[in-house]
TrEMBL record:
Residues annotated as domain Membrane transport protein MMPL: 54-336, 393-702
Entries under Pfam families matching the protein: MMPL (PF03176)
Domain of life: Bacteria
Entry keywords, A to Z: Cell membrane, Membrane, Transmembrane, Transmembrane helix
UniProt KW Signal keyword: no
Cell compartment(s), UniProt: Cell membrane
InterPro entries, A to Z: MMPL_dom (IPR004869), Mycobact_MmpL (IPR050545)
Name the record gives this protein: Membrane protein
Gene3D superfamilies (UniProt xref): Multidrug efflux transporter AcrB transmembrane domain
């Protein structure tokens, strides 16, 4: 494929451009099928969501205007006037359907006005600005009071503004940072630009293909972001591996076609194996039984496969067409630093010094390094899983500050359990009576919030679904909130609604979803891990014709993943790093992170491992001893692997600067794992292990062995050798 592309560059480039354009345009024309709530239903909370959706309730968007004193006691007269002004200002807006009467808090320290918005609740966030302006006007007229608005729409708008700026900054920084690192790695602008260009084109094609695939596997909001994240990582890596080997062969005197072919047989082969390994790791997400993970798996697999295809087709064509122009325009100082490495990789004195302990005393070096990584992984044993809640959102916006004051004054507006009931024919009155009894029993229980008003039992238009919200005054992730969920599910619901014949009841809400999803991940994680390990073992054993290489590859990647888990727990389940990274500890790891982090890390770590072991295996076939081959393979790949790792660590570290704790955890986890893999694993653990094993590295059963043609020899030269024989 590579030689044909190099010999017919314009055809290969044209076919690639057409392929990307057809994928992108075709995908946009087909449109995206978004995952529904029923697609994302997990556990009892998922069943509750399905029941509520089946009720087809008309749930308009609502906002809350809170009136409190700036200090001291609330002046009720002034507060009533402010509430009247709020009602008048809101009723004058076409975006408002109704305004409630003022509701005083139990302690008399606050006054609440609820506002119901008109129109489609899906677009309410776009229209909530007029309500915020009205509230600001009332605040200006009553400077002696605090008049502020909060609610789902105003908080959503504030978070979108904050997070939108975060993601824009991350996207703005990621490309220049990647390009700058590649300039340092290659010392030439065109050589640095080619990997970025191909990665972006692969991402564009994969985005189009993912929209087509959404008609089979519904898509979620995070799919596009993951495609961009994975696509830039593997796309740049694959091009780097290929480009550095092609430059190395040209520096040895090969012509362009031969250099491209050798790069394809060596680095290109490693890219294909790595792509298969990443695909297998991502395919493990399908076993999670979760549409979110399935959507991420589809997007990741597509962008990896497209990147592999691009590295074997359009990249050789570009290299053939550009020729030595790939090294133009040169950056004077950087070019002088990078050019000798391209011509004589494997002679790095720095890496020779780094490898010295592993090569001279492999057993001691291996023992110390593995024990250090296991110590770093140890905190993962105390990992707790949870969803980020309202308490984890940044408190820098007025809407979130108002929300905190609202929940303090009116606890029933905080964490809420949703009891959803399917009502059998003729049992509506009995069901409503049972729900009312449940609400009153909960109000008398200290685990639940007292009622601010009569229980609000919603019934669907056809009378088949009834819904009741029961609030708890405790934070969503607290032990008390989880205890209240258990009491509802195991005691209160069975003793009230459960006694009505034929009803189906489920308890949902944030706490229920949090508990159910954590249990779901704990149940599915071993299945996914087992699938990934078994198939990765088979791929590595088949590729390298060695059972030992396959086993050690898996062991080292597990060690790297475990260490990154431990680091995430150490940082985010404690408080010592809050000031450094700018977050508030949620005393837990985000529920979806361990599963997603494992498959991504296992896949991306295989990039480096396959590339390095391929160079070592290549040296062994050329007659070197295992010890010399290890030194040659690692130092020879040091430049390209280090550059690729720096790119990944830099991009992932940008995500650690985002405002939300889940993105911080993802960025830190990915960056830490890649850093550990490219340094300790590659420079210490791998060489010491392979040196200690010696020829045993290449052991395999007889049926797996085969006689292989030595690599790094162009096809036409092998033909000449064969004819002379």
């Amino acid at each position: 494929m590579a030689r044909w592309s190099a010999e017919h560059p314009w055809r290969a480039i044209a076919l690639w451009v057409v392929f990307v354009a057809v994928c992108f345009v075709g995908g946009n024309m087909a449109g995206t099928v978004e995952a529904s709530n029923s697609d994302q239903a997990i556990g009892e909370s998922g069943r509750a969501d399905v029941i509520v959706n089946d009720g087809k309730f008309d749930n308009p968007a609502t906002e809350s205007v809170l009136i409190t004193p700036l200090s001291g006691q609330l002046d009720r007269g002034a507060a009533d006037k402010a509430a009247a002004d709020v009602a008048a200002a809101m009723k004058a807006l076409p975006e408002v359907a109704s305004v409630s009467d003022p509701l005083p808090s139990h302690d008399g320290g606050a006054l609440l006005v609820r506002v119901t918005m008109s129109g489609d609740p899906e677009t309410a966030q776009e229209r909530v600005g007029k309500l915020l302006d009205a509230t600001a006007g009332v605040q200006k007229a009553h400077p002696e009071l605090r008049v502020e608005e909060t609610g789902g729409e105003s908080i959503g708008q504030a978070m979108d503004d904050t997070l939108g700026k975060d993601f824009q900054r991350a996207e703005f920084l990621s490309l220049p940072v990647t390009f700058a690192i590649l300039i340092v790695a290659f010392g030439a602008l065109i050589a640095a630009g080619v990997p970025v260009l191909l990665a972006l084109m692969s991402v564009a094609a994969a985005l189009g293909l993912s929209t087509l695939a959404s008609h089979l596997v519904p898509s979620t909001d995070t799919t596009a972001s993951v495609i961009l994240l994975i696509g830039m990582a593997v796309g740049v890596d694959y091009s780097l591996f290929y480009l550095r080997r092609e430059r190395e062969e040209r520096a040895k005197g090969r012509n362009h076609l031969d250099a491209v072919e050798i790069a394809a047989e060596t680095s290109g082969h490693a890219v294909v194996v790595s792509g298969i390994a990443v695909t297998i790791a991502m395919a493990g997400l399908f076993l999670a039984g979760d549409v979110v993970f399935s959507s991420l798996a589809v997007g990741s697999i597509l962008v990896v496969l497209v990147s592999v295809i691009g590295s074997l087709t359009v990249l050789p064509a570009l290299l053939s067409k550009l020729g030595r122009w790939i090294d133009r325009p040169r950056v004077p100082v950087l070019w002088r630093l990078t050019r000798p490495r391209a011509a004589s990789e494997g002679q790095s004195k720095v890496w020779g010094f780094i490898l010295r302990p592993a090569l001279r005393k492999p057993a001691i070096t291996l023992t110390v390094s593995v024990l250090a990584l296991l110590a770093l992984a140890a905190p993962a044993l105390t990992m707790r899983l949870s969803f980020p809640g309202m308490e984890d959102l940044p408190r820098t916006t007025p809407a979130m500050q108002a929300y905190d004051r609202l929940v303090k004054a009116y606890p029933s507006n905080g964490t809420v359990h949703t009891i959803a009931v399917r009502v059998p024919a003729g049992q509506l009155d009995a069901t409503k009576a049972a729900l009312a009894e449940l609400a009153n029993r909960a109000a008398a229980d200290p685990l639940f919030a007292p009622l601010d008003e009569a229980p609000d039992i919603e019934v669907s238009a056809d009378g088949t679904v009834a819904v009741l919200d029961v609030a708890t005054p405790f934070a969503g992730r607290s032990d008390q909130a989880k205890e209240s969920l258990t009491r509802l599910r195991e005691v209160m619901v069975p003793q009230t609604v459960g006694k009505v014949a034929g009803t189906e009841a489920a308890v949902g809400g944030f706490v229920g979803a949090d508990v159910d999803y954590a249990d779901h991940v704990k149940h599915k994680l071993p299945l996914v891990v087992g699938f990934v390990l078994v198939l990765t073992f088979l791929v590595m054993a088949f590729t390298f014709r060695s059972v030992v290489v396959a086993v050690t590859s898996i062991a080292l990647n597990l060690l790297s993943a475990g260490a990154s888990y431990g680091l995430v727990v150490l940082i985010f389940q404690g408080t010592w790093a809050e000031g450094i990274l700018g977050f508030k500890s949620m005393d837990a790891v985000v529920s979806w992170l361990p599963l997603f982090l494992f498959v991504v890390l296992f896949g991306l770590s295989m990039d480096y491992h396959v590339f390095v072991v391929s160079r070592i295996r290549e040296a062994v076939k050329q007659g070197m001893s295992t010890r010399d081959a290890v030194a040659h393979g690692i130092t020879g790949s040091a430049g390209v692997v280090t550059s690729a790792a720096i790119v990944m660590v830099a991009v992932f570290s940008i995500f650690a600067t985002l405002s939300t704790v889940d993105m911080k955890q993802l960025g830190v986890g990915l960056a830490a794992a890649i850093l550990l893999d490219a340094t300790i694993i590659r420079a210490v653990v791998l060489p010491s292990l392979m040196t200690m094993l010696g020829n045993a590295n290449w052991w395999a059963p007889r049926f797996m062995r085969r006689r292989e043609v030595p690599p790094a020899t162009p096809a036409h030269e092998r033909e000449l050798v064969g004819s002379s024989r």
